[in-house]
Amino acid sequence: MSALLSRGEFEARLRAVGAERYHSLHPFHRLLHDGKLNKGQVQAWALNRYIYQARIPVKDAIIVSRLPTADLRRTWRVRLEDHDGNAPGEGGLERWLKLTDGLGLDRKVVASEAQALPATVFAADAYVHFVRDRTVLEAIASSLTEMFSPTIIAERVEGMLRGYDFVSKETLSYFNARMTQAPRDADFALNYCLEMASTRAEQDACIAALIFKCNVLWSMLDALHHAYVEPGHVPPGAFKP
Amino acid sequence: MSALLSRGEFEARLRAVGAERYHSLHPFHRLLHDGKLNKGQVQAWALNRYIYQARIPVKDAIIVSRLPTADLRRTWRVRLEDHDGNAPGEGGLERWLKLTDGLGLDRKVVASEAQALPATVFAADAYVHFVRDRTVLEAIASSLTEMFSPTIIAERVEGMLRGYDFVSKETLSYFNARMTQAPRDADFALNYCLEMASTRAEQDACIAALIFKCNVLWSMLDALHHAYVEPGHVPPGAFKP
Predict the structure, then answer these.
(1) Model ipTM?
(2) Chain A 89-118, residues with CB within 8 Å of chain B CB atoms
(3) Which of B28, B58, B219 to substitute to test the interface with A, most A CBs within 10 Å?
(4) In angstroms, rounded to a whole number, what is the distance separating the alpha carbons of residues A180 and A82?
């Protein structure tokens, strides 16, 4: 049996997962941020990423349903408000559709999910199943990729505005909101894990949950890269730019 | 509302799904069957396909648990015997490990699933979740890829024996058993769907279930192709030949 990690060591191990496996390191993200993709490839990214966005409030509702106190549920519920809004036309999912609108995609096609890559759907659904089937601690730890997102978002907005004339500040409004939401959410989730993981096995389970989540994000970019950067690999039925 | 399909039309639509989307059409399979892969690439295929093999008896047990009569459960239970055997060292999963043994892979590493591509795990798990969460009719329809498997298996065994000196008849023994099991299972499942789908909506749900299952198999080969045929795309933590 390995010894319990100190709070500082445990946090360092979690941060190391991001340094090694967060999707900011994926070649597709570099192409996206460096303005190296064509409009069809950026469309494919936005259409597929919609699947992930659509699963976020679902997985957050599952987490709310599994939290034991009103305090915890109320705290986590803020994420539902962020993504689903408080009225029609509001919220992060709606802002994602503004991005797909801005890219010239048909909103009905995007929301139908019919043209997404199956691998994207399997990965995003794996995240939903994970937060339902694993411990609450693992479910919360799997959200910790948000610790790493402010950097990638800043790079992405800056790089996309510079690299693509078909992208505007308005169409990227989703990311502005995330710049403040993600650090607030990540702080809460990190402190929860640091407090509640009281055995080394629980600490290791948190680290594994964060690796799992990095794999979800990474595999979505692998699927995009294979289908839309390598020539001739769009699977049957998927979006053709 | 579309009209109910005749039995013949319904069967033809199901077979058309295979003709358009079965993974026999995937470029990775052509490379595999034509002897165009190196040993490391064949190892990666066998190690990843193990994940799918390991989920088969799990999804079959879920289907058994959802069938309403002893007759139906007994019929479907044969699949559990085929895959898990009646004693240690028997069954299809064990025969798959003979294949990975024959390819020089460490059985413990294969069975740990630790070096599989995350996309493989997400796809195989999606199949398990599908048979748990959808109707029994859809769960059974999703097994109908077995209608198309005898042809691909015959090609695969013949092509691999000819193309690779590191593969023997003994290591491919898994596929011999499948040549008789798959048609028997597919006949039963096809008749079940033809009988039990009594509305057009149910027929369409069967067709969609079969498309879903083709997507599972296809996306596993996409992931293999991206990681092991395109250079430099093995994701963090996955098998390196």
Answers:
(1) 0.88
(2) 117-118
(3) B219
(4) 11
Contacts (Cβ under 8 Å, ≥6 apart) of B114: B237
Question: Could you tell me if A222 lies within 8 Å of chain B, comparing CB atoms?
Answer: yes
In B, minimum Cα distance to A227 occurs at B222
Rounded to whole angstroms, how far apart are CA atoms B47 and B99? 9
Pick from A90, A122, A123, A96: which is nearest to A111 by CA? Answer: A96
- Give the count of beta carbons closer than 10 Å to the beta carbon of residue B194: 16
The span from the CA of B217 to the CA of B119, in Å, is 11
* Alpha-carbon distance values, B233 to A21, B29, B120 (Å): 13, 19, 15
- Residues A116-151 as b/e (b if ≥16 CB within 10 A, e otherwise) read bbbbbbbbbbbbbbbbeebeebbbbbbbbbbbbbbe
Residues 6+ apart with CB under 8 A from A47: A100, A105, A109, A110, A115, A116, A239
B110, B47 in Cβ contact below 8 A? yes
Q: Would the pTM count as exceeding 0.90?
A: yes
Check CB contact of B223 with chain A, cutoff 8 Å.
yes
pLDDT tens digit sequence for A73-94: 999 999 999 999 999 999 999 9
pLDDT digits (tens, 9 = 90+) for A40-71: 999 999 999 999 999 999 999 999 999 999 99
Distance of CA B239 to the CA centre of its chain: 21
CB atoms within 10 A of CB B88: 7
Distance, in Å, from the CA atom of A157 to the CA atom of A173, rounded to the nearest integer, reads 9
Q: CA triplet A123, A129, A131: central angle to 5 degrees?
A: 110
A118 contacts B219? CB cut-off 8 A: yes
What the block records as the tokens of A219 is 């595999």
Could you tell me the domains of chain B? 7-229 (1.20.910.10)
Helices (H), B85-172: 92-102, 107-112, 118-133, 136-141, 149-163
Beta carbons of B222 and A218 less than 8 Å apart: no
